[in-house]
Amino acid sequence: MASIKLNSGYDMPQVGFGLWKVPNDVCAEVVYNAIKTGYRLFDGACDYGNEVECGQGVARAIKEGIVKREELFIVSKLWNTFHDGDRVEPIVKKQLADWGLDYFDLYLIHFPVALEYVDPSVRYPPGWHYDGKSEIRPSKATIQETWTAMESLVEKGLAKSIGISNFQAQLIYDLLRYAKIRPATLQIEHHPYLVQQELLNLAKREGIAVTAYSSFGPASFEEFKMKHAANLTSLIEDKTIKAIAAKYNKTPGQVLLRWASQRGLAIIPKSNSPARMKENFESSNFDLSEEDINTISSFDRGLRFNQPSNYFPTELLWIFG
Q1: What is the extent of the structural domain holding 138?
Q2: What pLDDT tens digit does each residue of the chain (321 aa) get?
Q3: Residue 238: CB partners within 8 Å, gap ≥ 6?
Q4: Which residues are catalytic?
Q5: Residue 110 in marked binding region
Q6: Structural domains in the chain (count)
């Protein structure tokens, strides 16, 4: 398994397993099977609502001697309602308890969005709305306040590395001005419809590793019925992607994943199917030609799907403008 050396000194597996939208009733089994398949990086989050079950899958694999804790790379994320400095450590400890772990290998700020605190005893995960229905209440916490609290997680051994997710260039430059511990990774939506090459160049210059999510483009977001995705051709079904896949005797999914990993990004595909798990895991055992990489990159349309204003009414436009 290829790995990426982080600026924190740790090695992060380049191919991981994403846990977004893995149903609770099968999550423990899915994680267990993914470990058996060979996955060692698992990308979770408070907001996914399945961390207890993820931990159960990990515990089973460890108990059966399939893997040791130190061989795993567990990632989780800080949700928006816990950005206030004094809220960070308590929620991390809760998340660790849910996983049954003593530390996270990597802990990320999920969005550069601070919302008013919701007590986990009231609703967990809290989601976007303060009342669980429609009310959006911003918090006054700054990114600097949140990042300072994130840095303390490393100092206390609760996280080995810390990073950011869904940040764009301006916020990254601002964060780097005051960060005592630089973000080890940047996790972003990344697929041929959203290449974000300038952002990738920035991260490379600053020594920040990049993890790509939603590598198959609109496929993960079909249920949200977004207008700007309505007439898009599925990347998996695109005739050009299919032709490239046939050329290498691979699947379109493997080609899309290899396009990202061959360009130096980490990838975190997910599937509940053991066969598809294996297929995704083995997506790095071939190389695309430079011509084919450029052809896939030319699909770029700057189309972003994981943006709050794509899910909700205009009340959320203040978040991303």
Answers
A1: 3-320
A2: 899 999 999 999 999 999 999 999 999 999 999 999 999 999 999 999 999 999 999 999 999 999 999 999 999 999 999 999 999 999 999 999 999 999 999 999 999 999 999 999 999 999 999 999 999 999 999 999 999 999 999 999 999 999 999 999 999 999 999 999 999 999 999 999 999 999 999 999 999 999 999 999 987 777 666 666 667 878 999 999 999 999 999 999 999 999 999 999 999 999 999 999 999 999 999 999 999 999 999 999 999 988 766 656 555 544 544
A3: 252, 299
A4: 48
A5: yes
A6: 1
C-alpha–C-alpha distance, residues 84 and 25, integer Å: 32
Q: How far is CA 230 from the centre of its chain?
A: 24
